[in-house]
Amino acid sequence: MEKEKLSKSTSSKAMKKILFLLLAVFIGTFLVIEGFILYFAQKEPQEEPDVLIILGARLYGTIPSPALQHRLDRGAAYLKGHPNALVIVSGGLGRGEEMTEASAMKKDLMAQGIQEERIFVEENSYNTYENFLYSIQIMEDENLGLQKEDLLFGIVTNDFHIFRSTLTAKDFGINAVGLPAKTPPSIILKSYLREYLSVLKYLILDRPKIFR
């Protein structure tokens, strides 16, 4: 009887230690990752990119969501001020969308006065990893004639997403800086919290694919 009690007590203590360790790991990784997310969200580039990559986000049918519109407005403002810069718009067809995100993005940029010949369309991607995987194919297309090693790329996305997107770009061998766009106030908290999980997923599942 006493042996059973001792065994249960030992098991209980071991379980508490495991739970405490898991909690400590969670808190530690959360603080570190959120720290990087917040730091890069506020960091403005010191250099002027040659090519922008604007990452896709949700459409309402054919209309950019507020988050995507912020990205497009940030990209358009840069392109107007740098007439020699080119842009790749990247995003596939999502659920409930009536056209690819990239097609809608191109249409919006042209409506803002950006010449069609400056815009290149990547419309096969469904996440940040694929954004860069397929954008690289666009860059290396013989007709485009861009060598990523010789160019500086500006990654345009909402501020909470800058850390993961620039990390992904650099893992693909892209010399990149982030151009943070605003995040709509209604989704700020949700976006920053969810981004912690997205960074973990990238580090554990997606990043190893790049280095195979």
TrEMBL record:
One of its GO terms (biological process) is Gram-negative-bacterium-type cell wall biogenesis. Keywords: Membrane, Transmembrane, Transmembrane helix. Pfam families: DUF218. GO terms for cellular component: plasma membrane. The keyword Transmembrane applies. InterPro entries: Cell_Envelope_Assoc, DUF218, Rossmann-like_a/b/a_fold. Gene3D superfamilies: HUPs. It comes from the Bacteria. The keyword NADP does not apply. Residues 50-197 form the DUF218 domain. The chain crosses the membrane at residues 20-41. Coiled coil: none annotated. This is Uncharacterized SAM-binding protein YcdF, DUF218 family. It comes from Proteiniclasticum ruminis.
